[in-house]
Amino acid sequence: MKKLILMTIALLSLTQAFAAATEENTSGVDRYAVYIGSNKGGKGREQLLYAGSDAQNFQKAMAEIGGVSDANSYILIDPTKEAIDDTLNKISLKITNSQSHAKRSEFIFYYSGHSDENALLLGDIPYDYSALKAAITEVPSDIHVVILDSCYSGNFIRTKGGQKRKPFLIDDSSVVTGHAYLSSSSTNEYSQESDEIESSYFTNAMITGLRGAADASGDNKVTLNELYSYAFNDTLSKTESSKAGPQHPNYNITLVGSGDLILSDISSGEAMLSLSKDAKGKFIIRNAEGKLISEINKVAGQPIFMALPAAQYSAIIIDEYSTKQGYFILEKDQIYVLDQNSLTSIKRKSNRVRGNTSDDADDDILPIDDLDERKPARRGSRRRYDTEEEISVISIEPSESSEEKSESKKEDQFISFFETFNSRNMTYFHMSAVPGISITGGEKEYSLFSMGLIGALDTNVCALQWSNIMSITTHNMIGGQMSGIFNTAGQVYGVQAAGLFNTSGNVNGGQFSGLFNVGKKVNGIQTAGLFNVANEINGVQTAGLFNYAKEVSGVQIGLINYAEKSNGIAIGLINIIKDGMHHVGFNWDSNGMFDVFLQSGTKNLFITFGAAMDRRDIFEKYNENRTVILYSGLGTELRFGFSSLDFEVLFKSVYNQDYMPTTYQEFKEFNFASIMIPSFRFTFNILSMNHLDLGLGLSLDIQNKGTNDRAFDYTYHRWGSDNNETNLYPAVFLGFKIK
Description:
The protein is of the alpha/beta class.
């Protein structure tokens, strides 16, 4: 009986483990997307300004909280019709060849640009709606979501108002199939973009909705129905009084099955902004560069959570009685509650109402629509909103003892006063005339200049912070931070330079050091004499020895480069890219040479090291006169479907015991150019599998007579001519690579 009980428990455990494994392998959704921005409308049509940036911003939102990986995303700016068709074919092939166990696949097609009643307008080339719909339908995904932000795009849907099925039940275990078409306008309306928001009204509403404003249920997820409803109301409210007329987004949703189609998960964002339940009014959120992120008309009674990247932002809140402005920083994996009480009130512009004889007319509170809304100053600097002029005192104080202070006050030779016009926060000039420390405090205080021979410790600096030993900024460094020993800062917008090392949170600009740099996210250049460390690089990371980054979108240059994920290139002697290339290959060519090689780097640019010998020298008895070829070079990979093509530029060195130098004097006089062979290698990997490539290729060795004759004297070439000054010697080869 005891054995029976034990067997039953073991069987149940195995069953649960198998069920868990099965659920893990079959859960989730594979999502693919193409984002198209076309500013060109052809002859007679106005050039758009924000179609390309709309596509990029939409892609960014979907990558952060929409579950579309970078590998499954395609961005096309001002493409041709052929480029769109080619991208759709790539996505179709990728879905067909996918070995994922996801419960369904979804394809998102986004377009921002010109169109008319019959077609998308790609410059002067139209892409007919019927042909486009057929091409999208051929993508073998379970669900097709099409979002068109262009004039007359309602004609793509055909049926005004669309067809909407019964709302879905929330049942993630069920399968949903079909299509959803969303257009920014109806069949006879213009779609409009705005210089004020630097975007189209519809796309701005869609992105704001995806980031959380459309979450009507409060479950931190935005569904297709919630997104359309929010985008419709927001777009209509902002265009109903425009000269081009009101803009009515349209839809056609034909989805079969149960389970809500979730387009974004707010909780997966890098950071979160919370607008409390009781907060109300118009919330205008901008990034550190002053670009509008979201504009939300919030009513009391429903909290709103917005998924945003970790960064610095400014906020303006306008309600019936006041206008407030301030700055805040979103930290990674944190929720920031925007408290209206912590913001600074802005004095509203007073207007006299005609016909009103009251002496108190200037004190009337105007409706929200009549407010004088102004953009916040860029990059965290403060702009004066009040009509009164405020005077800030700028002091330059030497570091001295108490006795010296009293004497200094008498002579008053180190203190100067200047007048300036500023906002409520004072602007300070700090400088230590003798070795000392320059300090300012308070999160809302900004130093214009902060200099000290020993140290400069500030909360916020807007221009320059310099110190021979250290420069510490706890929040924002906007401008230049330079130190003879080291720098540390929360956020850097400009240049951070040090003789020894730098450390910071996010860097937007340049981080330079003679020894090493440490940063979380670098948008620009990170360069050091020894090594660099960063979580994310968008630009260039260069070091004399070692570069480390988790994610790279750009270039790594160093002796050793390491990255967990790279969408750029790595140039170095050793490149360790986790999602890159780490291949060991073997080739046998028509000249009878057998070679082994190593490829490392990214598919965009990889480094090759290899060695080759005549097969007879390998398998026959040891011979001192055997020839050995060592080579290295750079290459790139073009991948398509099951196959790929490698193109490499190589430099071969031919070594033989007969002519190699044996003494130091011979080595100094030896002509190494005589044993070098420039070469090109093309490898067509016919069958490319997860861990093995089978290849067929062509190599071309180049002889320049009078320069590298010795290299060709000691190597065998089956084909080629030596009648010219420069000759090509081709060879074909078979081989394979282990990945």
